[in-house]
Design goal:
Radius of gyration: 16 Å
Shape: globular
Largest sheet: 4 strands, antiparallel
Number of strands: 10
Number of domains: 1
CATH topology: Rieske Iron-sulfur Protein
CATH superfamily: Rieske [2Fe-2S] iron-sulphur domain
Strand content: 25-35%
Distance between the termini: 62 Å
CATH architecture: 3-layer Sandwich
Length: 128
């Protein structure tokens, strides 16, 4: 039996946009809304370089990663050819205008994936 947890109202997610759901451990989950009000959830991490998919542009059944424009399918998290790779997807549903995610998946899925690292260079760079 699925243990559903309410995340937000459908109207809290912009049409053709996303909302981030933070987790205690692991990368956040991005919840996307399509033009026809379908909702999908993916790990907020592009399989290419870890870009934040929640900041990408939603079009049709896909999202374009904001870093390198990879197209990621919302239904399964797979990159469109010729690119390869996938990001984990999460089970979600909409009931009476409320968006729900599977609490067990949130607590256990994709916790071992490395988080993207941003910031200054950590090694000494050669000077010209």
């Amino acid at each position: 039996m699925t243990n559903w947890i309410a995340i937000c109202a459908l109207d809290d997610i912009p049409v053709l946009g996303a909302r981030r759901v933070a987790r205690n451990v692991g990368a956040a989950v991005a919840v996307f809304r399509t033009a026809d009000d379908r909702v999908f959830a993916l790990l907020d991490r592009c399989p290419h370089k870890g870009g934040p998919l929640s900041q990408g542009i939603v079009f049709g059944d896909a999202v374009a990663c904001p870093l390198h424009n990879w197209t990621i399918g919302l239904a399964d998290g797979h990159a469109a050819a010729p690119d390869e790779g996938h990001t984990p997807s999460f089970t979600c549903r909409v009931d009476a205008g409320q968006v729900f995610l599977d609490a067990d998946e949130l607590a256990t899925q994709a916790l071992d994936l490395a988080l993207p690292v941003a910031g200054p260079c950590t090694r000494r760079c050669a000077t010209a």
